[in-house]
Design goal:
Structural class: mainly beta
Mean pLDDT: 83
Bound molecules: copper (II) ion
Shape: globular
Largest sheet: 8 strands, mixed
Distance between the termini: 39 Å
Radius of gyration: 25 Å
């Protein structure tokens, strides 16, 4: 149920199947099955042993859970907050009470509790936590964070034995290879309008300061794109132009999914004059203890309470990554199936899908209602990048990994003692995969309406309009080409030579075994699927507003995230791939974005056989990432760069890959794109007719697919034994591949 080692059948007859078949079977490798020395942990904790609705829900906006800056300086009217935040290994009681089974394995003889080893962000090891503490930043604040990696070496990696180097990866150069084996990390502020050098991109990773093997001198190893020598990242005021919920999490190459799974994730809120975070806000938004972030993440555990990361095993007996990783325990704010006692009043929930691969379709039911009928309206007031113009009343909220929903729930109509369960029914993978288990992953948390009403804080009435004006649809810059990109899914087949253990086989005889891995990728319509380290194919001129058309040729829904920008979702439309010409042909109605998608987003659900059209202004030069936010997809390897290119580039800047870092003064002078700065005569873009697509007729033959060379030809000796010498050989080969990728101009 929780793992998928084989591609499920395509849900419906789809014209995409032809194309998927074309992209499949990308390469055939032959491996010799050396003994894989990694122990493979297969026992997991039965999630039904975990007591539901006993763990009190922590509030990441409680004062004790919010970072305090180490210094605040105001100069020329600009506030600068400085922080030093580390990444530590610590432990946390995530599960709460767990039934303890007797020796017979069937009778419960008591309960036990576990301290689960985690990685956490914090200002000290003692205070590090999952989720990490919360940033709450006033608008127009310059935030400077010195990030300090304290995670030691990969030999002690928390997610061992599930992380063993590039063997685990299906694309070998998708793995950071630090010379001194430190755990690579790099924090990324998801949603941030951040300079490229502070963006926390996969090849900007850095390690703890470790004594060099030769020389004994402490060194921090850094990825090829790390340009911040002191690992102090700047989130300047343009990051926090208007109130929003961002989140920060690790993004290191090949370690993102496991670092985040281990706990390296936290929240980042900005307040502004409208959404003040106080009772004085004029929008009727609940505040104080009535505003509660919900970071939802599914996990799995070993029987002794350690985090377990789902995997598969190849014919050599080596651990390999799955196309998706689904847990069987739902956590909210770092607690399994928590409970929140609420007053009979309105609450504001800042919901984040922080899962590796799991979509969340959330709604509230009465605990006694076996029909699971929706029992409360989820009034959505905001999305990824801030407030909606008008609240959207919904019975359920659907989120893909990385997406946020800002919702208000009014508990005042419920009788004292009413219990409400937050449920989830999003299939895995979404939306044609396995159903949730109603007893485990179909439940998220519980609300009990039994706290006494605090009469000194009146229940606010939500305003009908939250912004002074509707959000105006961006106009693409004349002459700027539409960016046309695709989501692809290919398979790699590897043939292993393994000992023949069949009856009657001669001693020492060998036979072959085939291993098939699903490799999701991004690419272009012209070139088809490309590797992450292939040369950049998307360039947008600085300050241009560009439309992106994202064609999903796969069978699953993927949440596509663009770094740097806040975008608007324009529309969706079906497409087919012409069997004869290979051309992409749009068909059927253009479906404009509606409801809660009529707002500023940074992550969008792209549906199978559908082209999703978004528009954004690209107002900061540099290299950025766009990727699927299913962490297992982005690392495997559904991630690509894009570049925002200034018209005049000095030779020096060109050599640095256009990673220009404008001076602070320049940054302040840059136009800021935010709902707050929209002219009052703006109109709701949902009401506007969709724009003609610049590339509507521009379909491309696919015969030349993979014209761009990929780095897969440099695959190292994967599948070799995992003794330290073998690992070193693999690492050096992969490292060479990474640098070759850079040399090709990526
Ligand atoms: Cu994906």
């Amino acid at each position: 149920m929780s793992r998928r080692s084989r591609r499920r059948p395509v849900r419906k007859s789809s014209p995409m199947r032809t194309f998927v078949a074309l992209a499949a079977a990308e390469r055939l490798e032959v491996r010799t099955a050396f003994t894989c020395n990694m122990p493979v942990q297969e026992n997991t904790l039965d999630p039904l042993l975990i007591h539901k609705y006993e763990n009190p829900l922590p509030n990441p906006l409680d004062a004790a859970s919010v970072y305090r800056p180490s210094s605040v300086i105001t100069s020329r009217g600009v506030r600068t907050e400085s922080y030093t935040i580390g990444m530590y290994q610590t432990t946390q009681d995530i599960l709460g009470n767990v039934d303890l089974m007797g020796p017979d394995g069937t009778s419960v003889i008591g309960t036990t509790r576990f301290q689960t080893p985690i990685y956490g962000y914090g200002t000290s090891q003692a205070t590090a936590s999952f989720p990490g503490k919360t940033f709450v930043v006033p608008q127009n604040t310059n935030v400077s964070v010195h990030w300090v990696n304290q995670l030691g070496t990969v030999a002690n990696y928390l997610m061992n034995p599930y992380m063993d180097g590039s063997d685990m990866m299906n694309t070998p150069d998708m793995m950071a290879m630090p010379a001194n084996n430190g755990v690579p990390t790099v924090p990324h502020l998801h949603g941030g309008h951040t300079e490229s050098a502070s963006d926390g991109q996969p090849d900007q990773w850095f390690t703890q300061a470790l004594p060099e093997t030769v020389g004994g001198r402490a060194v921090i190893d850094r990825g090829p794109q790390a340009t911040k020598a002191n690992d102090t990242y700047v989130y300047d005021p343009s990051v926090n132009a208007a109130a929003h919920e961002y989140w920060y999490h690790d993004h290191a190459l090949g370690y993102t999914r496991t670092n985040v799974y281990a706990g390296l994730a936290g929240l980042y809120f900005t307040r502004d004059g409208l959404d003040t975070g106080t009772a004085a806000n004029k929008l009727g938004l609940p505040s104080g203890k009535y505003e509660v972030p919900l970071m939802i993440a599914d996990k799995m555990f070993t029987p002794d309470g350690q985090l377990y990361y789902p995997h598969q095993v190849d014919p050599a007996g080596c651990v390999r990554m799955l196309p998706e990783a689904f847990g069987d325990v739902m956590t909210v704010n770092g607690k399994a199936w928590p409970v929140m006692h609420v007053e009979p009043r309105a609450y504001r929930f800042r919901v984040l899908d922080g899962c590796d691969s799991r979509f969340l379709n959330l709604w509230l039911t009465r605990d006694t209602d076996t029909t699971l009928a929706p029992a409360a309206t989820l009034m959505q007031v905001g999305t990824d990048q801030g407030l909606l113009y008008k609240p959207v009343a919904q019975q359920n909220v659907l989120l893909g990994p990385g997406e946020r929903a800002d919702i208000v729930v009014d508990f005042s109509k419920f009788a004292p003692g009413t219990k409400l369960i937050m449920r989830n029914d999003a299939a895995t993978p979404y939306d044609g995969g396995d159903p949730v288990d109603p007893a485990t992953t179909g439940q998220v948390m519980e609300f009990i309406v039994d706290a006494p009403l605090t009469r000194s804080y009146p229940n606010p009435t939500l305003r009908a309009s939250l912004l002074p004006a509707a959000i105006r649809q961006l106009t693409p810059t004349r002459g700027q080409a539409t960016v046309q990109v695709g989501l692809f899914e290919s398979e790699i087949e590897e043939t292993f030579t393994v000992p023949d253990t069949s009856p009657g086989a001669a001693a020492g005889a060998t036979t072959t075994a085939t291993f098939t891995a699903i490799v999701p990728k991004l690419g272009t319509l012209e070139a088809g699927p490309l590797d992450y380290h292939d040369p950049n194919t998307e360039s947008i001129s600085l300050n241009n507003t560009a439309v992106w058309e994202i064609y999903n040729t796969t069978a699953d829904v993927h949440p596509v995230h663009l770094h740097l920008v806040a975008f608007q979702v324009l529309s969706r439309q079906d497409f087919t791939v012409n069997d004869v010409t290979g051309a992409y042909e749009k068909t059927g109605d253009v479906r404009p974005a509606t409801g809660s998608e009529v707002g500023w987003k940074d992550t969008v659900k792209t549906y199978p056989g559908t082209v999703t059209r978004i528009v954004a202004k690209f107002d900061r030069a540099g290299t950025y990432m766009w990727h699927c936010h299913i962490f297992s997809h982005e690392e495997n390897d559904m991630m690509r760069p894009f570049k925002v290119v200034a018209p005049v580039v000095t030779p020096k800047a060109a050599a640095l890959g256009s990673q220009t870092s404008p001076s602070l003064t320049t940054r302040f002078a840059m136009p800021q794109m935010s709902p707050m700065s929209m002219p009052p005569q703006a109109m709701a873009f949902s009401a506007m007719a969709p724009m003609p697509a610049a590339g509507d007729e521009g379909t491309q033959p696919t015969g030349q697919r993979r014209a761009v060379p990929t780095s897969s030809a440099t695959a190292g000796p994967r599948g070799a034994n995992t003794s330290s010498a073998g690992v070193l050989a693999v690492k050096s080969a992969v490292k060479a591949a990474v640098f070759q990728g850079l040399a090709r101009g990526n």
